[in-house]
Amino acid sequence: MNPCAWPERWRIEGALILAAAGGEPFRGAIEIAGGRIVALGPALPPAGEGVARFSRPGALVLPGFVQGHVHLCQTLLRGLAEDLPLERWLRERIWPLEAAHDPESLRASARLGLAEALLQGATTLLDMGTVRHTEVIAAEAVASGARVRIGKALMDAGDGVPAALLEEPGRALREALDLDRRWSGAAEGRIGVLLAPRFTLSVSAGLWREIAAAARERRLAVHTHASETTAENEACRRLHGGRPIEMLERWGVLAGPTILVHAVHLTAEEIELLARRPAAVVHCPGSNAKLGSGIADLAAMDRAGIPLALGSDGAACNDALSVPAEMRLAAQLQSLRQGPGLLGARRILAMATGGGARALGLEGEIGALAPGKRADLIVYDEVELAWEEEADIASRLVYASAGLRPREVYVDGRPLVLEGRLVRADLAAIRAAAARARARLLARAGWR
């Protein structure tokens, strides 16, 4: 069927449906109307007049993945910052290259990153944005059809930060709030805006306090990196007088919804504090492993009741923008750290779906398949996923899906991927434009 003429009301029949990560799959049908799920179950009444029917007897249907942390501005930087620890990775490679972005290169980077994420089954993304031209990313998010939360990266201080990434605090915050006014609620509500201070070492104490006040006034969440490395924790103590979590609490940031990325090196007291605050943690195991940052204690955070999500981070420190790859690695690394089974496959799958929705404040809209929720769902070929029918579905998804792509991806009931291919764009054309933009970016950066 022509995706441009996709029916307003339709259903998938005969598929194996996993409505929520912790539930049991059933074979049945799911019906969508007006962008929302209106019915699902093993024995729905016959489809009414005007309902398009799609038979998928060999398919597995589940909620779309939530890509809990990504830097779309870094998609063009893949392979350019290899074999470095975080601090050198930022100062010697990433910050200078981000500073060389112009609207054209940022557009190409965002478009490629969104395409890759959709093809891997991410229906919702949380993007850190960048200091300049973030509205370009917002426009690409609208065009992609994905559900995206974004913020302008806030940076007004920091050792080794290029001048092009440093802004006067008042201007930086005004631009961040203007992004909220212009883009929150765009694309029928698919786009939302957060405040995105980069981390404690690149934001002054004064700006942090202003961010906390603005977040309270505008009811915006704060999205930031925290406690990624031991070196970061120590540098924050020297600069501000305390570790990142302590300082975020002191500045008033943790009083409101806060999405903390990495949180690899937390004390037991910091975990207890976060559990008492409206804070969530996004775990990025691939990035943490590549940069040698460490393995977060997910089990301790989970026991404390902290909402947990999964993210890939940027393509410059992960390479693959794949939530399934992060699920597999997260499960394996926790087994190495804690022993097998302490965080099982169902819990890891929950982090990639409902956990991500909760972290972003979207649990009422996405993260599970239920009547009234948004029709953000993905469809795998069940046979391709694994042939062992007696195996647990969550285990098959966590351990066997990393090298596979979903056949179909829907957001608000509209197809964005069909038969494994993008519906709204041509991947080859996106890649070609990205290659041209990358060459020009490297020339501007004086890359050798």
TrEMBL record:
Q: Which domain of life, per UniProt?
A: Bacteria
Molecular function in Gene Ontology: hydrolase activity, acting on carbon-nitrogen (but not peptide) bonds
Kindly give the InterPro entries that the UniProt entry links to this protein.
Amidohydro-rel (IPR006680), Metal-dep_hydrolase_composite (IPR011059), Metal_Hydrolase (IPR032466), MTA/SAH_deaminase (IPR050287)
Record domain Amidohydrolase-related: where? 60-414
Which Pfam families does the entry link to? Amidohydro_1 (PF01979)
Q: Does the keyword Hydrolase apply?
A: yes
**UniProt keyword Hydrolase, yes or no:** yes
Keywords attached to this entry? Hydrolase
Q: What is this protein called?
A: Amidohydrolase family protein
Annotated organism of origin? Eiseniibacteriota bacterium
